[in-house]
Amino acid sequence: MNNQSNIDDLETDLVDLIEKLLNANAAILGISVSTHGGTYLASKFKKDISMTKTEISAASSSLVFLSSKILQDSLNQKISYNMITGKKRIILSILTENIALISFLNRELAELEGLDTFIKLLKQFAISISAIIDTSDLIKEDVFVAIKRAIPNALVIAIITKDGLPIKMQTTMPEPILSAMTSAIYNLAGILLEEGLEYSIIGGENGSIIIHELDQNRILAIAVPEADERKLGSYIAKIKAIIE
Question: What is the 3-state secondary structure (H, E, C) of 42-74?
Fold first, then answer.
């Protein structure tokens, strides 16, 4: 059985678990699960929504990343959950060691039963999903992990949304600045090319930055201590092999 078959089977198993939780809880409208790097794993919603699966994955991973970062930098604490409250819906996000889970709740029903109930329930559900993912090979195939393994000398690895929101990063540069600059370069290049950007190289005397499109929602940026065109070409080939 190949990797794609394993991924498809895993998605089916996760969707089944999500569906059971949705059926048992009227207040939960839908759940999406993704890796820290924003790769879609599974989702199920009671009603169709306007966002695509990959858009939700990228947005939810970015939301959890930013929430985790602001809590760590301001209070030096690890994130437990993030809750966004609107007039009709509540979005509850949970971060585990290897996944980001985002759930959509009916506010009236959730508050009627008690928000603490759903925070505890979804935390436990996220842990159980995380345990399943941990025993699979899927995390090994996650883009961020694969890039680190394929290009071990990378000084910076950043996955961001095309709108400039950070999803997952390994960098000493402030994440918002790196994200905004990467997004700006990507979008400006697309305007000049009058088509979508595939990749860009910013070359220096002793190092380079490669910006590469990952999918319709995400961009990859890596910095390497290398200026040789042949070696940079080999890095790009490795990136393509990982994402294709």
Answer: EEEECCCCCCCHHHHHHHHHHHHHHHHHHHHHH
